[in-house]
Amino acid sequence: MSQQLIRSVGRRNDEMNNKLGSPIAYGRTAEIYAWENGQVLKLFYDWFQLKNIEYEKRISRAVHASGLPVPSVGEIIQRDGRNGLMYEHVEGISMSEMMPRKPWGIFRYARRMAELHVEMHASTIRADIPNQRQHIRRKISQAEVLPAALQSKILTAFETMSEGNRLCHGDFHPGNIMVTGQDEIIIDWIDTTLGNPLADLARTSIIIIGSVETGENRNPLTKAFIRVFHSTYLRHYFSLRPGGENEYSRWLPIVAAARLSENISELEKWLIVQAKMVSQIG
């Protein structure tokens, strides 16, 4: 979409005098505002490039067309000098927020998350979606804090891993699952690729367990809660999609090394330890 067209759409919305008010949610790249007609505005920070917003729009529409439980996506608009993307308003809260409120539902939520992941991994949608192998290889190469010798070992191990052509979320965790009155909705598809489901599964494990091991959650009960949730989710996933446990384990140090490219300082030491496990996995 051209800048001129975005400005035009933005002016039309300004004329409607739709006041943004306060954000209803915050993310790493954007703020979320309530909008009219059952929509929300994902208003990106000014450093987030327009080409990446256009990419998110294209990917989100392709995934929505696959029939998976995801919000429909609208148009790109400009508001207050920033670019935004319209989405269907999902009435609910994230699974990560829901579980502390209803801790007795931990097993149900873990199993449901596994079911959604298996459903996703059954999809072989035909769309212009990035290749997972290229995505992971690039991230490993860009991980500046990864020691050169370890990086070499990781890339050697990576080349032995099998490819795939299934839909992979790339950032699948309870914070990206909205719990509504009727169902659960998967959000935030910016890291979507087509590839090996077991690599995507390993990525989820690294995200969830990393939040426990790095001190992000200091409460021992919370840590135990997260570990139980993760083990239940993983066990149910493999009950629904049997086989591949060994390959999943081999992916763990690889995706840990790739996550180092994201420059999350509090995770770096733990991720390097996980990456070093590549030498112990045959």
The gyration radius over C-alpha positions equals: 20 Å
Give the full name of the CATH homologous superfamily of the largest domain: Aminoglycoside phosphotransferase (APH), C-terminal lobe
Widest β-sheet, arrangement of strands: 1-2-3-5-4
Largest sheet composition: 5 strands, antiparallel
Write a compact overview of the structure shown.
This protein has 282 residues and is α+β, with helices and mostly antiparallel strands.
Give the helices and strands, then pairings:
Layout: H1 3-15, E1 25-26, E2 30-34, E3 39-44, H2 50-65, E4 73-79, E5 82-88, E6 93-94, H3 95-101, H4 106-121, H5 132-142, H6 148-158, E7 166-168, E8 177-179, E9 184-186, E10 193-195, H7 197-213, H8 220-240, H9 245-259, H10 268-276
How would you sum up this structure, described in words?
There is one protein chain. By secondary structure, the chain is an alpha+beta fold. The chain folds into 2 domains: 3-88, Phosphorylase Kinase, domain 1 (2-Layer Sandwich); 93-280, Aminoglycoside phosphotransferase (APH), C-terminal lobe (Aminoglycoside 3'-phosphotransferase, Chain: A, domain 2, Alpha-Beta Complex). It is built from 10 helices and 10 strands. Strands 1-2-3-5-4 form a 5-stranded antiparallel beta sheet. Strands 6-8-9 form a 3-stranded antiparallel beta sheet. Strand 1 (25-26) and strand 2 (30-34) form a beta hairpin. Helix 5 crosses helix 9, helix 7 (197-213) packs across helix 9 (245-259) and helix 9 crosses helix 10. The longest helix has 21 residues, at 220-240.
